[in-house]
Every structure is written in C-alpha cells, then in structure tokens.
Specification:
5-stranded parallel sheet, Rossmann fold, globular, about 140 residues, alpha/beta
Length: about 140
C-alpha cells in the first residue's frame, strides 16, 4: 500500500472532514490538515510543505475549488501534489474543467468510501485511470 503521510482536506462541511478521517484511518500516522475554503488551504500550503494529496470540494465560500486550482496553476505552486476533486457537481463540463486545471481525479458526492480509497491508492501509486466520476460507484 502506498504511503499517505500528509493530506490536506479542503471542504466547507465539518461533517465531510469527519467522514474523510474515518475513511482515511487505515493510513496510520497520516497527518490531516483541514481547510474550510480555498483561501484557508492556500494559507496552510504557505506554511506547510510536502503534502502527498489534496482532497478538494468545488462549492465553498470565500474561494471555491476552481478558484483555488486556478491560483495554484497560475503561480505554478504545488504542481506535483495530486488533487482529487470531490464534489456534488457531476456535470461533464465541471469534471473536464477540474481535470484541465490539474486534478488527478474527480469523485461525485455521494460516494461509497471504498471508491475514494481505491482512487487514492491509484493516485498515490501513480497508476491511471484516476477518474471516478460516478455516483455510488
């Protein structure tokens, strides 16, 4: 199993943060950082280094997921850090936009925990395909 040591969760729902912690408890020793919007995530990224993965929502206040990814791409920041978008937005144009901005995967909420785990494993092992854009797959 690939190692996951440092993860950034960017979502405006505290319930989602808690759910991710339950799903990710199999990665013993993984340090999880929580941001409630893209601006908070940028602040964390400015202070912390060497993230293995970012789980990112699209719809958030202050700075949404697309704006966050545009900022990262524009400034060429953290390009090597895989981003998995997990959103209620499942339209093809949303998925394609996120992938064009550098997302390694896209999951539509609601989803089953095993689907997220399998996608994380593929991303960490750098084994495509990374896309998982079906509900309850």
């Amino acid at each position: 199993m690939p190692e996951l040591q440092k993860l950034l969760v960017v979502d405006d729902s505290q319930l989602i943060h808690s759910m991710y912690r339950l799903v990710l408890n199999r990665y013993e020793g993984c340090k999880i950082f929580d941001a409630m919007n893209g601006l908070e995530a940028l602040d964390i990224l400015s202070r912390e280094k060497n993230f293995d993965l970012i789980l990112l929502d699209i719809n958030m206040p202050v700075m949404n997921g697309i704006q966050f990814m545009e900022k990262l791409k524009k400034e060429n920041l953290y390009r090597q850090v895989p981003i998995i978008v997990i959103s209620t937005e499942g339209r093809e144009e949303d998925t394609l936009r996120a992938l064009k901005l550098g997302a390694w995967g896209y999951v539509v909420k609601p989803f089953k925990p095993h689907m997220l785990y399998e996608l994380i494993e593929k991303v960490l092992a750098k084994k495509p395909p990374f896309l998982a854009a079906t509900k309850n797959g």
